[in-house]
Specification:
Shape: elongated
Number of helices: 3
Structural class: alpha+beta
Largest sheet: 4 strands, antiparallel
Order of helices and strands: HHHEEEE
Oligomer: single chain
Helix content: 25-40%
Strand order of the largest sheet: 1-2-3-4
Radius of gyration: 24 Å
CATH topology of the largest domain: Nuclear Transport Factor 2, Chain: A
Number of domains: 2
Number of strands: 4
CATH class of the largest domain: Alpha Beta
Length: about 160
């Protein structure tokens, strides 16, 4: 039984933005390569153990080679998916502002991943600078090279009349 006040899982310190003052810097996506190296090293160790044990070994059987194959595939995936994010949220916001064609007021950035190899992509939600905003847009900016992946703009359908004084 666990104590209700016991903390079982928590964010790493560099990902926890609670209580942080100042501009937040997103961690680089190439951190994904660290577990990739661990998987590849473990796969190599499995192969070495299997080959060193010989054909008559009982505990080090061909299952080690199957595990090594799986770890190699996943390790290579981690290495390929760990691309360096050369475009930060501020650069992505600048590119998104250029793409929508209206003066931007409020905006929000979220780092997401797309495609089979998890290419990092910024999702930028933008509102025009009027009060209340007349237009809004969603722009996807590639975090590796900064090109606009896709964009969508529309007249703001939200009714903000109750919020104005």
């Amino acid at each position: 039984m666990s104590d209700e006040g016991e903390i079982r899982d928590e964010l790493p310190e560099d990902l926890d933005a609670a209580g942080y003052v100042g501009p937040y810097e997103f961690p680089d996506n190439n951190r994904r390569r660290i577990p990739g190296v661990v998987y590849l090293a473990t796969a190599a160790l499995c192969v070495v153990v299997r080959l060193a044990a010989g054909d008559d070994a009982v505990l080090a059987n061909d299952g080690y080679l199957w595990v090594a194959a799986g770890l190699t595939i996943f390790g290579l995936f981690c290495m390929a998916a760990g691309r360096h994010t050369a475009v930060d949220d501020t650069d992505a916001l600048i590119e998104a502002t250029k793409a929508v064609g209206f003066p931007v007021g409020h905006a929000s950035a979220q780092l997401s991943w797309r495609g089979l190899l998890s290419r990092p992509t910024w999702r930028i939600l933008l509102y025009s600078s009027e009060d209340p905003p007349a237009r809004r847009g969603l722009v996807l900016v590639d975090a590796v090279d900064g090109h606009i992946v896709d964009q969508f703009t529309e007249a703001n359908p939200e009714d903000w009349s109750e919020l104005t004084a």
